[in-house]
Amino acid sequence: MKAHSALVTLVAAGFIGAAPITVLAQTQAASTTQANDLPAVDKAFVQAASESSSTEIDTAKLATSQSQDKDVKSFAHHMMIDHTKLTMQLKMAAPHGVEVPTDNSDTTVIDALKPLKGKEFDTMYIQKVGVEGHQKAVAAFQKEAQEGQNADLKKAAQKALPTIQKHLKMAQDLAAKKGVQ
């Protein structure tokens, strides 16, 4: 909006012709229209995938300070790296004008984990983030892979699905190892 105001000011002052305003307006309208035209299934996927990765990254950071268990910390480190990559892949697959949020973590999960330490933290982290979080993510990625309307997002979901499924398996194995139900 500031750029648009500056452009109007420059035109009014006679420094540039009127043609760039038309181009700027068309570009803004095209990207806004493209974002608004994203089918509901694809919009839901972008939201679910970005929330999942953001939550994974933020809770993994918590695990580095609040867990004393080397297996939990190792899992968290792995999640931080992989979900950062997945977020970048999602951004690259998203159509021009579609914003992929990077700071939209599930605050109820984070708020539940913040006061916990040690084994209590580990149990909740493994249950809520590791297993349940990845079950939801697998479902979202499968739905997009099967029903997605945007070819690039659908392809990104298909490509990322094995990684998300691997994360779920890792979380289930960690839960079994630590006796978490």
Automatic annotation (TrEMBL):
Report the Gene3D superfamilies cross-referenced here. Answer: 1.20.1260.10
According to its UniProt record, what is one Pfam family this protein matches? DUF4142
Which superkingdom is the protein from?
Answer: Bacteria
Q: Name the chain's protein.
A: DUF4142 domain-containing protein
Please give the organism. Caballeronia zhejiangensis
Give all residue intervals belonging to the DUF4142 domain: 42-174
Q: Which InterPro entries match?
A: DUF4142 (IPR025419), Ferritin-like (IPR012347)
N-terminal signal peptide: 1-25
Q: Which keywords does this Swiss-Prot/TrEMBL entry list?
A: Signal
